[in-house]
Amino acid sequence: NTMEVLDGFAIVGSATTLPELRRCPNPKACRGTRKLAMSTAGQLFSGLSSSQMCAVGYDRSSEGCSRCEAGFGRNTKDPFVCVRCPEGSKTIFSAIAHVSVPSVLFCMGLHSAMTNIDGSKD
To answer: What is the percent of the chain where pLDDT is above 90?
Structure first.
């Protein structure tokens, strides 16, 4: 017997428990193995598990493929999407940008707050 699972859903369970079908927060995350072998009692065969439900980049141990694998992180535009982390200089540049932009904006705001309406400084 086999169980076919539609994209956007994952099987939660193990070789010793009855499987449950769950909707994934990000349908694109649940695109791993889509057919699982089942025993006549409705249990997943020992060689197969719910961990095969997740697409590359998503943590197979998380329910509904809701966490990112090591080397992947959340997309800033969509918090449900895991993307590969940049390597080397891209990471350093990103860290510098994340620190310097808010610092510059803070200094500009501080300078603006210290200037009176008529343009003189306290």
So the answer is: 5
Amino acid at 21: L
Residue type, 43: Q
Q: Per residue in 35-57, pLDDT tens? A: 666 666 555 554 445 556 788 89
Contact 2, 38 (CB under 8 A): yes
Phi/psi zone of residue 10: left (φ > 0), alpha (ψ -120 to 50 degrees), beta?
Answer: beta
Residue 82 tokens, joined: 């895991």
In this prediction, residues 12-28 reach a mean pLDDT of 75
* Exposed / middle / buried, residue 71 (Cβ in 10 Å: 0-12, 13-18, 19+): exposed
Q: Residue 70 — left, alpha, or beta (φ > 0 → left; ψ -120 to 50 → alpha)?
A: beta
What are the DSSP calls for 38-79, one per residue? B-TTSPBPTT--GGGGSPTTB-TTSGGG-SBPTTEEE-SS-T
Q: Judge if pTM exceeds 0.90.
A: no
C-alpha distance across the termini of the chain, in Å:
81
Stated as kind and residue range, the H or E segment containing 110 is helix 89-114
